[in-house]
Prior knowledge:
Blueprint: H1 2-18, H2 24-46, H3 58-80, H4 83-90, H5 93-104, H6 111-128, H7 139-157, H8 165-187, H9 195-221, H10 224-227, H11 233-244, H12 252-283
Helix pairs in contact: 1-9, 1-11, 2-8, 2-9, 3-7, 3-8, 4-7, 4-11, 4-12, 5-6, 5-7, 6-12, 8-9
Amino acid sequence: MMLSMACFAIEDTFIKILSARLPATQILFSIGFGGALITFLIAFVSRVNLADKILLNKHVITRTVADLFGALSFTSAMVLIPMSLLASILQATPLFVTLGAAVLLGEKVGWRRWSAILTGFVGVLIILQPGYGNFQIASLLGLAAVLCLALRDVVTRDMATEIPTITVTFYACLAMGSAGFIAYPFFGPLFLPTAFETVVLIGAAIIGLSGYLLLVLATRKGDVSVIAPFRYSRLLFSLGLASLILGEKLTFPIIFGGILIVGSGIYMFGRERRLSLRKIDSIN
């Protein structure tokens, strides 16, 4: 999980570097379809069927659509707002996953976890600063990305486990590339990338794909309640890279709001783990 988060933070840094000249459309096309091509080749060599009829169920379709709009919102936000700001907003995703599981899947959520979710939302508001001069309307794209990623993760809970990891990754990459078609009217024409930009694009595709594969493997192979808190390591990686590589200044609202979100998320994961252990003890 931590390796996955490190890969995503590096990919985010590459995207931010590329956004200085290339439009979001070109970044989505290049990284999405590039990743899809790599996973297609891996699936071909591994003899994994990417067109199985099981992929037509509602969970897979909903997940793919959520991936598409999540990639569109995230990449657009990355182009328009500081990476440190977006990275902090993204940490609210696990809170929205718990909220979505309660609303969509009917999972029981006690007052303690509701309090943790509310605290996390307060952290998001502190980061966004709506109503103040520092508020950036484009940061709402980051919040839209959080909602899409949360929906994706909620749907994944009910997805058939027999669907291969490489298949899930292939369609996620395909969705990201397809998001470029939606972004095109808003971000303008494509540019011929320089040699440096081409290397960075290839690197972003490979590292992003690696992060996604590691994430799916970690989620499927590990105890979710144990590994999930390590998702927050992405914030540390992202803030470090944003400061050291991109020269961004870490403001007090970003740091304080991030602490509230991460703290409430870790508490919520701990609470879920204790409840799951109690259920196991009661069964035994």
